[in-house]
Amino acid sequence: MNFIPRREWLETHCKPERVQQKDSIHYPFLYGRYAFTQTYIEPENDIHILLDLFERFSQFPLVISGNWYANSYAEALYIKYNLCQSVHLLDTVMPERVLNMLRSNCYVYIEPNHIAAKNTALAESMYLQLPTIAYASETNLQITNHKAMYYKTPAELLEALKSLHPAKATQLGHTMKKVMEEKLNESIQPINYTPEDLHGLPSQKSQNYHPYTPYPYPE
């Protein structure tokens, strides 16, 4: 299955955004480095391992956007980590400019999805030229052409984070962008997904929709 959106969709919805003064007021972590993750909060993705690592990681925090009310696993993680100073838990429901601002200014993007799903966040991060550390699933390896940094264990993720110095991060971001441009230029028919498919967002008409946001999003 192809997980690459159409170029027109990426050009419209995945735009680098500068940090504005109002952003730093709402999100103080923007003053320094941070890792960013946008994912399904499912047991299969071992999100608890990611959160546990960053709870003890001292170099920079993790900002993670997810569906925290999707299941009991997600809710339990939110209760456990929502007060952790080195982990910032955000809801998936946010203005597009805020999402683009958060991810386009991160130091590194982490893709934890283990299983194939209709989620193109990894492709979007590559299009935005983000240095990427991904779980070494077959899907993630295929999308990144084996040119990202990868992990399967907490120790491997920790090693990848510690080794990502600024020059390496910059080069990795350029590599991810180049890989994505090559894929967009291939003679394939990219997929079209709804926003709900792309980011795991429940429809506002869904019983699972919950408009709660741990941070107030600037207008």
Describe what you observe in this structure:
- The protein has 219 residues and is α/β, with parallel strands linked by helices.
- It has one domain: Glycogen Phosphorylase B (Rossmann fold).
- The chain has 10 helices and 6 strands.
- It has helices at 7-13, 21-26, 47-56, 72-81, 96-104, 121-127, 138-143, 154-163, 166-185, 195-199, and strands at 35-39, 62-66, 87-91, 108-111, 132-135, 149-151.
- Strands 3-2-1-4-5-6 form a 6-stranded parallel sheet, sandwiched between helices.
- Strand 5 (132-135), helix 7 (138-143) and strand 6 (149-151) form a beta-alpha-beta unit.
- Helix 6 packs across helix 9.
Low-confidence segments, given as residue ranges, are 193-219
Largest sheet: 6 strands, parallel
Sheet-strand content, in percent, reads 5-15%
How many individual domains? 1
CATH superfamily: Glycogen Phosphorylase B
**What characteristic shape results from the CA principal axes?**
globular
How many H/I helices?
A: 10
Main sheet: strand order = 3-2-1-4-5-6
Helix-residue proportion: 40-55%
Please count the beta strands (DSSP E, at least 2 residues each).
6
Q: How far apart lie the N and C ends?
A: 37 Å
Radius of gyration: 16 Å
Kindly identify the CATH topology: Rossmann fold
CATH class: Alpha Beta
> What's the order of the H and E elements?
HHEHEHEHEHEHEHHH
Please state the second-level CATH architecture.
Answer: 3-Layer(aba) Sandwich
Average residue-wise pLDDT:
85
